[in-house]
Amino acid sequence: MPVRHRRPSGALFALLLGALLPGVAGAVEPGTISFVESFPAGTALDLPDLEEAAVVWPRVIDAADARVRVASFYFSRIGDGRDAAPPAGLTDRLLPSLAALRAAAGRGVKVQLIADSKFMDNYPEVPGEIGALDGAETRILDGGRLWGGIQHAKYMVLDDDAFFVGSQNWDWRALDQIHELGALVRQPELAARVAAVFDLDWSLAADPRPMPAVVPDTPDLFTLPTSPLRTAAGAAVGGLVAASPPQALPEGVPWDLPLLVDLIDAAQDSVHLQLLSYGTTDREQRLFDDLDRALRRAAVRGAQVRIIVSNWSKTKYKVPWLKSLAVLPGIEVRFTNIPEHARGFIPFARVEHAKYLTVDGRGLWLGTSNWSRDYFFDSRNLSLFVLGEGAPADPDRFFNLSWHGPYAETLEPAGEYAPPRRN
Fold first, then answer.
1. Could you tell me if 328 and 340 are in contact, meaning their C-beta atoms sit under 8 angstroms apart?
2. What is the per-residue DSSP string for 60-83?
3. Tens of pLDDT along 34-45?
4. DSSP 8-state assignment for residue 117
5. Is residue 381 within 8 Å of residue 209, measured between CB atoms?
6. pLDDT tens profile 324-363
7. Which of the 8 DSSP states describes residue 223?
8. Buried b (16+ CB within 10 A) or exposed e, 353-388
9. Is the Cβ–Cβ distance between 384 and 286 less than 8 Å?
10. Separation of alpha carbons 394 and 47, rounded Å
11. Other CB atoms closer than 10 Å to residue 223's CB: what's the count?
């Protein structure tokens, strides 16, 4: 089912272009948002003033007083699972975060983990070990049984007043061998909405009842109330949490896909998009062009559209659609080809995995979805929208580092492409 194209009015454009955002100017004390990176070791993809997830995660867990909720597609340390062995001598930067979870449970903090069922055959170790601790519990969510998809969201809720969301799975590679972007948000209203998503999935993991295939009527992005935030640079912005799939949304959490279309449709000057993968058809050959058409509309309006995708997208199924974008005036597509680690090949690593979009220097979507139909219609994913002047300043710097960096390769409409080795 396509998402309705809702062209914002001039008044709604004004909201995005710097006017007062709903919910920002009130008595509520502004929360904070800071962006958190991961980058492949030995590359030129580090923004030194952004903290790394490998540092932030254990610190915020150590500071938790009552409760830590963690959801990830999968959990994997070096040596876990049946992947090809990485080169010897690499550091596992996930271990401090796992140690922090153990310590939290040991001091009486309630620790809850959710993992998707599809990876449990390959990576059962961490969910089993954490779930066996006194004061901790793990539940496995069967996204296939519930929705026909997966639990793909990656996030953490801390004491009901802060959360982290981003592209990083709880995988040692995601902290040191993959290019990722996330956000740490300290704002109780937004944290409560993320917690509501977790709590719903926690109950569904225990009782995987069938969910009706309902597509909710989602209000326009720019009419929804936002919660006040300040960026690290001091910009006053508004934040909003949304999620997928549409048939499994707690009260107060809208479906993210229509809001993402709204954000693109508000673009006048620039759209920057960075993803692992981009697809317009699924395994059943169902067309999914809601986001694709929105990007094309933005280019027709005169916005400069720049898209970065990983070189894992150099497949015969995805390249033709990317080429169909690249031939249009105003749209440019680049791959990133991150070199192998100096010690040798690492399976499922050295890749672009961030998932975010910026608009006109005033709007941001940061999420956990790749851009294909199943992530928005059939799978659990989480989105953070941030609106206001300067909202995407750090993500835009993150984007430009890749766009202008040594690993970027412009997609040529007449070019021939093949994906790299993954495992």
1. no
2. HHHT-SSEEEEEES-EE-TT-TTS
3. 999 999 999 999
4. G
5. no
6. 999 999 999 999 999 999 999 999 999 999 999 999 999 9
7. G
8. bbbbbbbbbbbbbbbbbbbbbbbbbbbbbbbbbbbb
9. no
10. 9
11. 11
**Alpha-carbon span 23 to 236, nearest angstrom:** 12
Q: How far is residue 410 from each of residues 166, 271, 327, 403, measured CA to CA in Å?
A: 26, 17, 12, 9
Cα dihedral sign, 247-250-254-255: negative
**Number of helices and strands in the chain (H, E):** 12, 19
Helical H runs in 93-209? Answer: 95-106, 125-131, 143-147, 172-176, 188-206
> Per-residue pLDDT tens for 191-234?
999 999 999 999 999 998 877 766 677 789 999 999 999 999 99
**Does the predicted TM-score (pTM) go above 0.70?**
yes
Q: What is residue 264's DSSP assignment? A: H
Domains of the chain: 10-410 (3.30.870.10)
Nearest C-alpha neighbor of 89 from the set 392, 422, 342: 342
C-beta separation of 187 from 359 below 8 A: no
Q: What is the DSSP letter of 38?
A: E
Percent of the chain with pLDDT over 90: 87
Residue with tokens 């010690």: 343
pLDDT tens for 236-256 read 999 999 999 999 999 999 999
CB 35 within 8 A of CB 246: no
Helix (H, G, I), strand (E, B) or coil at 366: strand
Alpha-carbon span 357 to 354, nearest angstrom: 10
Hey, how many other C-beta atoms are within 10 angstroms of the C-beta on 41?
A: 19
Give the dihedral of Cα atoms 289, 295, 298, 302; nearest 10 deg: -130
C-alpha gyration radius of the chain: 20
Using CA atoms, how far apart are residues 379 and 288, in angstroms rounded to an integer?
A: 15
Distance of CA 423 to the CA centre of its chain: 23
Residue 160 Rama label (left phi>0; alpha psi -120 to 50; beta): left
- In the numeric block, the tokens 């194209």 are attached to 5
DSSP single-letter state for residue 268 = S
